[in-house]
Design brief:
Helix content: 25-40%
CATH topology of the largest domain: SH3 type barrels
Strand content: 25-35%
Number of helices: 7
Structural class: alpha+beta
Distance between the termini: 59 Å
Largest sheet: 5 strands, antiparallel
Order of helices and strands: EEHHHEEEEEHEHEEHEH
């Protein structure tokens, strides 16, 4: 670890009788903060070259984003100044759980998760068989089987307090998560409900934006009317409200009422 081929760590030794203790002379030092060594950099460059060959293959559009992020991090273009940034919140709570949860999910390990929701006074303990990790709106969510209620539950990583490996057996799943998210916007999926037809009137100035950045795969725009076929959930309402007076929900009536209630509540604040 002290060598330049390793981590070039500032390690010092302290003798106490016959015992020798080792520590970092710089208390702020961490191997996780160290830049890549030449060997690691070379491996990543080779990986980038391999990824570049996949750019035009069907189903591999995501490679472009990965390439751009890696190129930016490695600074392969030799730019002195940063020329690109990505929408990541480095201050988001719970990111330290992301890699462990990925490993637990990959290894099909059942977990006991201590969790505290936004509206909860006390912490709760959930036994979860983890299946899937998804990022939405700059937050990460874990999807898994809740052993107590016997159904799929999603947990926001920023509300997780502690994770421990459970003594319970892992419950296998046959869920196709591509299909699981097919009928929703966001992460809230009521499996007992069906998609409904949503009709929204758009302002003229917002149509090009919605056309270039579709809200959902079912999106269809005719003149100034947006048509969607999705399940109604909180994320859909929040997305509609984020466009302010550029969107007016016409159908279904239950969504109209829900949006109206939230607008009236908002109006009462001012």
């Amino acid at each position: 670890m002290k060598s330049q081929a390793g981590y070039d760590a500032p390690i010092e030794s302290l003798k106490a009788g016959r015992k020798v203790f080792y520590r970092y002379s710089d208390k702020e030092f961490s191997i996780l903060k160290q830049p890549l060594n030449p060997a690691e950099r070379e491996v990543l460059v080779e990986a980038l070259e391999t990824l570049s060959r996949m750019n035009n293959l069907p189903g591999f559009d995501w490679v472009n984003t990965i390439q751009t992020k890696l190129n930016s991090g490695l600074n392969l273009s030799n730019q002195e100044n940063q020329i690109i940034s990505f929408e990541d919140n480095e201050f988001l709570k719970g990111l330290e759980f992301l890699n462990p949860l990925y490993q637990f999910t990959s290894n099909s390990q059942c977990l006991d998760i201590t969790y505290k929701g936004f509206s909860s006074v006390r912490e709760s303990l959930f036994t979860i068989s983890p299946y899937y990790l998804k990022q939405y709106n700059n937050r990460w969510f874990l999807f898994g089987h809740n052993h107590k209620v016997e159904k799929i539950q999603n947990l926001a990583l920023d509300r997780i307090v502690e994770i421990k490996i459970s003594k319970s057996n892992f419950e296998n799943s046959s869920i196709d998560f591509n299909e699981y998210f097919e009928d929703i916007i966001g992460v809230s999926n009521d499996l007992s409900s069906d998609p409904v037809k949503v009709k929204i009137q758009l302002s003229e100035n917002i149509i090009p934006y919605i056309t270039s950045k579709p809200l959902h795969g079912s999106q269809l725009i005719k003149e100034n009317i947006l048509y969607l076929e999705v399940k109604l959930n909180y994320e859909l309402e929040s997305l509609i409200l984020s466009y302010g007076d550029n969107m007016q929900v016409l159908e279904p009536i239950e969504l109209v009422h829900s949006i109206k209630e939230r607008v009236e509540q908002l109006n009462s604040f001012y």
